[in-house]
Amino acid sequence: MWKEIRERESGKLRPNSFSNRIRSNRNSSIQLSNYKEIVSPHRGAVNSLQVDLTEGRYLLSGASDASVAIYDVQRATDYEGGGLLAKHKSLVTIDKQHEHGHKYAISSAIWYPIDTGLFITGSYDHHINIWDTNTTQMVMNFKMPGKVYRTAMSSLATSHMLIASGTEDVQVRLCDIASGAFSHTLSGHRDGVMTVEWSTSSEWVLVTGGCDGAIRFWDIRRAGCFRVLNQSHSQLGRRPPLLQRAATNKVSTSKSLSKGQSSSVKPRAPQRKMAHGNGSKQSAASKIPNLVKSSARQRLHPGLLSSQDRATAHYGAVIGLKVTGDGMYLLSAGSDSRLRLWDIESSCNTLVNFETVRLQTGKAIQLATTQDSALVFVPCMTSVKVFDVWSGTTVLTFRGHYEHVNCCWYSLQDQELYTGGNDRQILVWSPSKWNADELDEWSKKGKASALDEDNWSD
């Protein structure tokens, strides 16, 4: 770390490169925290975790005992071991005893993306509740046609306040907080919808994964899904960056122009040969039906083509989805114990060979990625595996839970990972702090005191 700091001070390292290198170093040293502990009030499996997107301070958790809790992960409520262990107890807890509390397991708990004044819970009791954080009172309720598996709100949205819900019903429903009613019903899945995820590049695009093994893309401004992923439609490797592709296109066009081809004159298409072998020109009348067929085929989105509509992304149910931060790739997990990386623009399976994993099949799981989307955290039975997104190799394996892990949430502000499992525990995985050997080494060099000094010290 100190090498990067010296290079940054001397100007050899740019600010963005410095911050990225520090983050990657912290991510590589993540381990079970021995100085921070979340005291869980839940008496059932922890199914959902999320840190608020505005302050990065409050952790929201939902559990199978129909309880939801909020913790302040920045300020501890108690200390133990002479102040070395910070304990974070719940600030707010809502359970079955509450007047409007859920009756069955809470499967999803998310923050309102604009501020921490509201949060949303979805439950197996067929209800989605919107809660006021300050008064702990329910302010709105949506009755769903079946068990609620997952809810999601877009972090980019400025034109709508829609909650996407995946339930055991085949239809995806969008709940409008502004009106208190359902605004959209998306039909296309042939079985229940296990997971929903909004795009990170457009506020109008929604991604859903169902028990039918299909992953569908929806533009909520139009009818029908516009993309269905097919696991047999594949390509190798990553797409080159936009700048590199633009440069390649310029080089190719300059080469074609240097050969004497005008950009305004298109090269002649090769003549079509007849059965007797002589080349003959195709009449204009014969071209018209083909043009009409091709244009009609292009206008039809995959939701209207039976062959593409039945395409599957996994051989089992899709139990987890995660869009990368740049919105260019999608990670999916299936009950077939497969992880896949998809190129969203081309709808291709990138064929990244993620090492063998075992995923639970009974419920949806919550994936998490780092800020640069280089690493993905995947709940694998009783452990959490960290994969390199682009190579599929296992970087780290976290073992601390006694039972199956259900959810992960990566805090971008602190580079910390929070995990919840069937053992009712919420574990904190943090980058390692300075150890005694490093401090002794710096004290021998006479630099330990300099770490705490500034330019105004005497």
From TrEMBL:
Low complexity: compositionally biased ranges: 252-266
GO aspect biological process, one term: transcription-coupled nucleotide-excision repair
Keyword annotations of the record: DNA damage, DNA repair, Repeat, WD repeat
Matching Pfam families: WD40
PROSITE patterns referenced in this protein's UniProt entry, alphabetically: WD_REPEATS_1 (PS00678), WD_REPEATS_2 (PS50082), WD_REPEATS_REGION (PS50294)
PANTHER family the record matches: DNA EXCISION REPAIR PROTEIN ERCC-8
Name this protein carries in UniProt: DNA excision repair protein like
Organism whose genome encodes this protein: Actinidia chinensis var. chinensis
